[in-house]
Amino acid sequence: MALKKKPVKGMKDILPAEMQVRDYVTGLIKETYKGFGFSPIETPCVEHIENLCSKQGGDNEKLIFKIMKRGEKLDLKGAESEADLTDSGLRYDLTVPLSRFYSNNANSLPTPFKALQIGSVWRADQPQRGRFRQFVQCDIDILGEAGCLAEIELILATTTLLGRLNFSDFKVRINERRILKAMAVYSGFAEEQFDLVFIILDKMDKIGWEGVKAELMEAGFEQEKVDRYVGMFTEMEESEDSLCYLEEKLSEVLEDGVIDNLRTIRQSVEATRACRFELVFDPTLVRGMSYYTGTIFEIEMAQFGSSVAGGGRYDKMIGKFTGNDVPACGFSIGFERIITILMEQGFEIPGASAKKAFLVEKKMPAEKLCEVLKEAKTERENGTQVLVTLMNKNKKFQKEQLMKEGYTEFREFFNR
Fold first, then answer.
1. pLDDT at 379 over 70
2. Where are the alpha helices (DSSP H) in 115-176?
3. What's the pLDDT score for residue 352?
4. For residue 184, what are the contacts with CB-CB under 8 A and spacing of at least 6?
5. Taking burial as the number of CB atoms within 10 A of a residue's CB, which of 218, 269, 324, 348 is the most buried?
6. Closest alpha carbon to 361 in 396, 388, 380, 385
7. Phi, psi of 397 (to 5 degrees)
8. Band (130; pLDDT cuts 50, 70, 90)
């Protein structure tokens, strides 16, 4: 059987030019987030299958790369279902592993705990531009902070990072799951119908309000409920202040403090942001994860055509492990999407140290080669990156290839 040289579908080899950008961005992420008090942690890439299939990951639970049991535990003949064959899987995000990590180590951690995680995750998804089956996620989370200071810090930290990567004029969309639920209650939908209603609402950008109404009717909901529900969004668009409208309209069904929290977040972020962006209340923002309990947000960039970061509050997840709920809120950057945009823009690493290539003629005597190596050693001690390599017959092509790797200076050493 012939060996295959291309990577598995949905995964990719990373060439040196891109790897340099990825390393730079990773370093900038760590530096920026540490400035906001986030502490790096690491969790295993393999998780217990029970944790991954806990009905908290939405559609991602359909995309798990499952791992078969090993050794004597693997009973192929006695297995009645797939569940009998698997006991673990590759993580599909970093939030479930973080919740397990915190549950296991809470006594050794401060309160609140500000976590930074950067690592690969895996989803058996259909690959497309900026989306792979193996990809890097970058998450910041604040655990143990119930107030909206957590949301403010997460938004400020994430947007500060994007500003340091020269992104600006993007849009931060924000909503509240409790508002979504209150609107559904006000319209007459039963709680067990909420998920279906939100799934249809989430399609609004693609199918428009007429499409939303049609799908709600096709799902079997009464005309009166559908009209009341969609009508609220229309009335909000026509109102001078969406939050004031909701505060009055949902006064009997919306939890106290929700609107005030959103106002505080907006006022605080707009007053202290480090780069240009627009913070927008978007009542149609849903986000697919079922574990969200409060504020949710996404960052949208016109040049990519979709969100490049997202997150929200998930106050009930840690309680699934411990029996005691812990306030939790997180923001995840689409690392691969950011890298895709930077590479397409021809991003150059600012302040990169000089890179020199010493091209050495073949069959050079040892004493002369030592002179070249000593000179390279001196350059490296002064902070210069130096490549010592044999000279090819086609020096022009060799230099062109090295220039693609960022080498800007060349010296040639001959045996004479």
1. yes
2. 149-164
3. 73
4. 193, 194, 197, 198, 229
5. 269
6. 388
7. -65, -40
8. low
